[in-house]
Every structure is written in structure tokens, then in C-alpha cells.
Design goal:
58% of the residues lie in helices and 3% in strands. With 192 residues, the protein is mainly alpha-helical. A two-stranded antiparallel sheet has the order 1-2. The longest helix is centred in the first third of the chain and has 23 residues, at 5-27. The radius of gyration is 23 Å and the shape is flat.
């Protein structure tokens, strides 16, 4: 992994002769398919895969390596739910059920429950369990929808997302009762 775009370009150029030799050995000719493929995607790689964006994505400092273990785990879960040949509709239903289950776990992480936990970069989205269950279901749903609409840049910059607080909590915590923002017209919202 590289720390910046310049380091990425130097590393890319250092691998060029090795990749060219291997391609010549394996497929013949003098093409540089691997180098060209990575080089044309260099901007995207630097925008998403070097140290800074990986740290901002919550992969730690230094960022942990990314693996496909989660994808393989989902494949395993689906193969357990749909053993052997299945009609397409059965597979789609099993996939939908698995996605729904994972979405529920992400929602539970917002109030500190379930098998997932928000990393420190996203702790500003966490709501106390008490506040979560004092809110009406449609208020909780709206909060989740607001989070789902955030772009990566907004998540990284910790854009405020508003969650309704219970009247009792608002008074005991001393928060202002009629907070408004450009993002919402609703009254009685507290900034997380």
C-alpha cells in the first residue's frame, strides 16, 4: 500500500518491467496489459485505495488490509440457505433475507447493539439505546434514511445528522428544544 499518489506512480513504474517479462513468458508478444490496465485506473486507485481514503473509511491507522472474506462468508451463507440447484426465485428470496438481516445489524449498531460496532470515525452517528426506543418507528426510519443518503465525503467530514430526542432526555441533558437546521424543517431535533 502506498501513502500518496507520487509513491503509487513510482511503485507502478517499478513493477512495469516485471509484469512485462511475465506477460511475455506467459502469453507471448510485447503487450503490457497489466501495466496499462492498472495505469488507466490510477486516478481511481489513488482516490480510493491509498492510505488516506482507507483510513477515512475506518480501516485503521495504518489501514488494515482488505479481504474478500465477507463476500465469501455471504456465499457460504447463501449456499447453506439454498443447497443444490434451486429455482431463481428461491435464490433471490434467500439473498433478500440475508441482505435484510445485515441491514438490521447495521441499524442495531447505530444504538450500540447487535454484532456490528461503529468505528470511531462514525461514532457521531451513534444514538443512545434509550433515545432510539423513545423515538417513533417512523422517526428511526427517517434517521436511517438520512444516513443512507450521505455521500462518502459527507461521512468522512462527519456531516451532522439529526435524530429526535425524547422530551425527558432533552430536558435532563440540557439540550435546546427547538433546534433547526438547513437540512431539516422539523423542530425538536438534537444534533448527534
Amino acid at each position: 500500500m502506498t501513502d500518496n499518489e507520487d509513491e503509487f506512480r513510482v511503485m507502478l513504474d517499478s513493477f512495469r518491467p516485471l509484469w512485462k517479462d511475465r506477460e511475455t513468458l506467459l502469453i507471448g508478444g510485447t503487450s503490457e496489459k497489466v501495466y496499462n490496465w492498472i495505469s488507466t485506473r490510477g486516478e481511481l486507485i489513488c482516490k480510493t485505495m491509498i492510505r488516506e481514503p482507507r483510513e477515512k473509511a475506518g480501516l485503521g491507522n495504518p489501514p488494515r488490509k482488505a479481504y474478500s472474506n465477507m463476500s465469501e462468508a455471504v456465499n457460504h451463507i447463501l449456499s447453506v440457505r439454498c443447497p443444490g440447484p434451486q429455482p431463481v426465485i428461491s435464490f433471490v428470496e434467500a439473498l433478500h433475507e440475508e441482505v435484510r438481516s445485515q441491514q438490521d445489524e447495521v441499524i442495531r449498531a447505530l444504538y450500540g447493539r447487535g454484532e456490528y460496532e461503529l468505528c470511531s470515525e462514525y461514532k457521531h452517528l451513534e444514538v443512545s439505546e434509550e433515545d432510539w426506543f423513545q423515538a417513533k418507528p417512523e422517526q428511526r426510519q427517517k434517521y436511517v434514511q438520512q444516513i443512507n443518503k450521505l455521500t462518502m465525503e459527507e461521512l468522512i467530514s462527519q456531516k451532522p445528522v439529526y435524530f429526535p430526542r425524547g422530551q425527558k432526555n432533552r430536558q435532563s441533558e440540557g439540550t435546546v428544544n427547538n433546534i433547526t437546521s438547513d437540512d431539516t424543517e422539523e423542530k425538536g431535533m438534537s444534533l448527534l
